C-alpha cells in the first residue's frame, strides 16, 4: 500500500479567502498547500472591477506571512452592468484570470449577480473574443425547482444554450455535483472544463442528516445522491484533462452555520490536499491525483505548471474542533475527526 506520494505543487482553482482579519487567518492554510489559487470575488461589496481586484490582490499579498510564496489569481464578479471595456481591462491586467457568473440569489453574496444572460451578452461576447474564461456557479435560482435539480436544470436551460450562442467562450463549470454535469463537461469541447471539490467527492447528501441536521455539511450546490458522488469520482479519476481541483473552501463563522437559517459553505483549506488524497486512494487512482491537482488547471488557464514538489504521507491526524480566526470561529470539515493523509512540511 502506498505510504508516500510526491507530486508537482498544486493550485486551488476555486477558493474563498474572504477579506480583512478572516482572510489573513485562512490564507496560510491555503498558501501552505497551493502555489496559486483562483480567488472568488463574492465579497461584500463584490469585486466588480479590475481596480477593485488589484486592491484585493494587494491586501492578500500584504497578509501573506513572511517566507510563504503564494500567487492569488484574481477574478471579477459579473453583474448586469459589467461593461465590455471592463472585460478588456481585466484581461490586460495580467492578474485577472476569469470573470465569475453568480446567478442572482444562487448562493452566498450573490444578490448582485446576473439576473438575465441577455443583459450580460455584450460582456460575454467580449470574453469569448479575447479568451477570458467565464467561471460559473451553475444553478438556476427558481425556488420552484427542487434544490437537487438546480444544477442539471442550469446546464439544460442556461449553459448549453449559451455555448450554442458563444461556442468559443471558455467556461469553467464550478464545483460540479452531478452525473449530468460530469457528462456534459466530458462531452463538451476543450473550452469547457470543471472544478470538483473534495467534499462533493467524499460525501453524499446523507451527510447533511447523519445523527441529526449537520449544518457544517451544507453548501451550495448542495451535496447530492450517492450515484452522483460516484460519477464525480469516476470523472476526476478518468484521466480527462477537463476536471481539476477547486476546493470551494468557504469559511463562515460558527454562529452563521449553526443557525435556524445557516449559511452555505464548507471550510476545507486546512486539509484540502489530504482530503483529495483520500478520494483518489479509495478509488485506487493515486496515480491520477497529480494531473487533477497540478496539471489540468494551469493547462486550461494557459499558465505554467508549478515546478516545486509536495509530499503527502499516509499518516492520520485529527482535525481541530474549530479554528479561532480572530473574531470568527470557523468549524472545519472533519472537525474532531481524522484525515488519513498528512502534507509533509
Ligand atoms: N459554496 C458555498 O456553499 N458557498 C460559497 C459560495 C459558492 O461557491 O457558491 C461561499 O462563498 O460561501
Ligand atoms: Zn458557487
Ligand atoms: Zn465558491
UniProtKB/TrEMBL annotation:
InterPro entries listed in its UniProt record: Amidohydro-rel (IPR006680), DHOdimr (IPR004721), Dihydroorotase_CS (IPR002195), Metal_Hydrolase (IPR032466)
Pathway where this protein functions: Pyrimidine metabolism; UMP biosynthesis via de novo pathway; (S)-dihydroorotate from bicarbonate: step 3/3
Cited function: Catalyzes the reversible cyclization of carbamoyl aspartate to dihydroorotate.
Cofactor, how bound (note): Binds 2 Zn(2+) ions per subunit.
List of residues binding substrate: 16-18, 42, 137, 220, 252, 264
Cofactor field: Zn(2+)
Family stated for the protein in its record: Belongs to the metallo-dependent hydrolases superfamily. DHOase family. Class II DHOase subfamily.
Catalytic activity line of the entry: (S)-dihydroorotate + H2O = N-carbamoyl-L-aspartate + H(+)
Subunit details: Homodimer.
Pfam families: Amidohydro_1 (PF01979)
Active site: 248
Protein name: Dihydroorotase
Keywords: Hydrolase, Metal-binding, Pyrimidine biosynthesis, Zinc
Boundaries of every Amidohydrolase-related domain copy: 12-319
Sites where the protein binds Zn(2+) 2: 100, 137, 175
Positions with a binding annotation for Zn(2+) 1: 14, 16, 100, 248
PANTHER family according to UniProt: DIHYDROOROTASE
EC number: 3.5.2.3
Residue numbers of N6-carboxylysine PTMs: 100
Species assigned in the record: Silvimonas amylolytica
Biological classification of the source: Bacteria, Pseudomonadati, Pseudomonadota, Betaproteobacteria, Neisseriales
Amino acid at each position: 500500500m502506498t505510504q508516500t506520494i510526491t507530486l508537482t505543487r498544486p493550485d486551488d482553482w476555486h477558493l474563498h479567502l474572504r477579506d480583512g482579519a478572516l482572510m489573513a487567518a485562512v490564507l496560510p492554510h491555503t498558501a501552505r498547500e497551493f502555489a496559486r489559487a483562483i480567488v472568488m470575488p463574492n465579497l461584500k461589496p463584490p469585486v466588480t472591477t479590475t481596480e477593485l481586484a488589484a486592491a484585493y490582490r494587494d491586501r492578500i499579498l500584504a497578509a501573506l506571512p513572511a517566507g510563504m510564496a503564494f500567487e492569488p489569481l484574481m477574478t471579477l464578479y459579473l453583474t448586469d452592468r459589467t461593461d465590455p471595456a471592463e472585460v478588456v481591462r481585466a484581461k490586460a491586467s495580467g492578474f485577472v484570470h476569469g470573470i465569475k457568473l453568480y446567478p442572482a440569489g444562487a448562493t452566498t453574496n450573490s444578490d448582485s449577480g446576473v439576473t438575465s444572460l441577455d443583459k450580460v451578452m455584450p460582456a460575454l461576447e467580449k470574453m469569448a473574443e479575447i479568451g477570458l474564461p467565464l467561471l460559473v456557479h451553475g444553478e438556476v435560482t427558481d425556488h420552484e425547482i427542487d434544490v437537487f435539480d438546480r444544477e442539471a436544470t442550469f446546464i439544460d436551460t442556461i449553459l448549453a444554450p449559451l455555448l450554442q450562442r458563444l461556442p468559443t467562450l471558455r467556461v469553467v463549470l464550478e464545483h460540479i455535483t452531478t452525473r449530468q454535469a460530469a457528462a456534459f463537461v466530458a462531452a463538451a469541447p476543450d473550452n469547457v472544463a470543471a472544478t470538483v471539490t473534495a467534499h462533493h467527492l467524499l460525501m453524499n447528501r446523507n451527510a447533511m442528516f447523519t445523527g441529526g441536521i449537520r449544518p457544517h455539511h451544507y453548501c451550495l450546490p448542495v451535496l447530492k445522491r450517492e450515484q452522483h458522488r460516484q460519477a464525480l469520482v469516476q470523472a476526476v479519476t478518468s484521466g480527462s484533462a477537463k476536471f481539476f481541483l477547486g476546493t470551494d473552501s468557504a469559511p463562515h463563522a460558527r454562529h452563521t452555520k449553526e443557525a435556524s437559517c445557516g449559511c452555505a459553505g464548507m471550510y476545507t483549506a486546512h486539509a484540502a490536499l489530504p482530503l483529495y488524497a483520500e478520494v483518489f486512494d479509495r478509488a485506487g487512482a493515486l496515480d491520477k491525483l497529480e494531473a487533477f491537482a497540478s496539471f489540468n488547471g494551469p493547462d486550461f488557464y494557459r499558465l505554467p505548471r508549478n515546478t516545486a514538489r509536495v509530499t503527502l504521507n499516509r499518516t492520520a491526524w485529527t482535525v481541530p474542533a474549530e479554528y479561532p480566526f480572530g473574531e470568527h470561529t470557523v468549524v472545519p470539515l472533519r472537525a474532531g475527526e481524522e484525515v488519513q493523509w498528512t502534507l509533509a512540511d
